């Protein structure tokens, strides 16, 4: 799932390895953490209570506790707000577009609309 993530800087070709990935507890699976660790990406993902309980139940064989940067995790709301703005467009929220290409085109169109709206708000 995380293989398609790309980060673009203002100039140059897109980077394919961000410094950190912030996600909610739904992304705290062992597979996601392993993938990020293999690519030297910091995982800013809190641990689920049941995962922590299972790890503690194993004792010393359960491994060390998972820590995350709480300050960096708080900044993830910026992404959440953008996703909410994208989903305000009914076509994206309900996935009316069945082909991945047309859905991605809708995402690009909606992102452009948000960007233009933000530009107009800052210049006014």
Automatic annotation (TrEMBL):
Biological process, per Gene Ontology: DNA transposition
PANTHER family: BLR1914 PROTEIN, PHP DOMAIN PROTEIN
Name used for this protein in its record: IS5 family transposase
Domain Transposase IS4-like: 15-99
Region (Disordered): 1-29, 46-71
Annotated source species: Streptomyces microflavus (Streptomyces lipmanii)
InterPro entries: Transposase_11
GO MF assignments: DNA binding; transposase activity
């Amino acid at each position: 799932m995380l293989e398609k993530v790309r980060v673009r800087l203002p100039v140059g070709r897109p980077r394919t390895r961000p410094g950190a990935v912030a996600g909610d507890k739904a992304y705290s699976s062992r597979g996601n953490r392993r993938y990020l660790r293999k690519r030297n990406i910091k995982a800013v993902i809190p641990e689920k209570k049941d995962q922590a309980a299972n790890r503690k139940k194993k004792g010393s064989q359960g491994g060390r506790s998972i820590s995350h940067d709480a300050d960096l995790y708080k900044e993830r709301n910026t992404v959440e707000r953008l996703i909410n703005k994208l989903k305000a467009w009914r076509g994206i929220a309900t996935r009316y577009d069945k082909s991945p290409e047309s859905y991605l085109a809708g995402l690009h169109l909606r992102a452009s609309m948000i960007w233009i709206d933000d530009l107009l708000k800052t210049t006014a």
